[in-house]
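EI: anyone free to look at a 155-residue chain?
SC: sure, send it
EI:
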Amino acid sequence: MKQINLFEKIIGSGFYTGFLPFAPGTFGSLAALLIYIIPGFENTFIIVPSIIVLFFYGVYVSSKFEKIYGKDPKQCTVDEIVGTWISFVALPKSFFATITAFIIWRIMDIVKLAPIKDIENIKGGWGIMLDDVVAGFYSVFLAHIIVTLFGVYFK
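SC: here you go
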């Protein structure tokens, strides 16, 4: 059986949010939100490379988590971090925009519109990561529409 080292466990579980007894995906997303609110993290030249690096590392580490904990394990929340960050890309860093994107992201991650459910069935870390990437793209698209249409009222 493959072992997970401490660094892999911390990152793969979204700073141990994956080991919480309830709502690990939501807590993983909240960990991503806490990182996002660090001043400057919203800069496209910071958040996009962070997403890309964490995505590929997430494929690797989530494959290890799956071998130990089973198919798409709740202990692995690195995918929620990547999906959450995608939902924030190029939005204004305002309370309204951030909360809007976060709520849409959680809905998309839970509901899993087509083809997210099918993507989730891809084996290993690719399936674990890619379904949340697609949900993140749905979220950022909808968040941009809502913020563009209604953001002027919530500055």
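EI: Residues 75 and 110 are 16 Å apart (CA to CA).
SC: 👍
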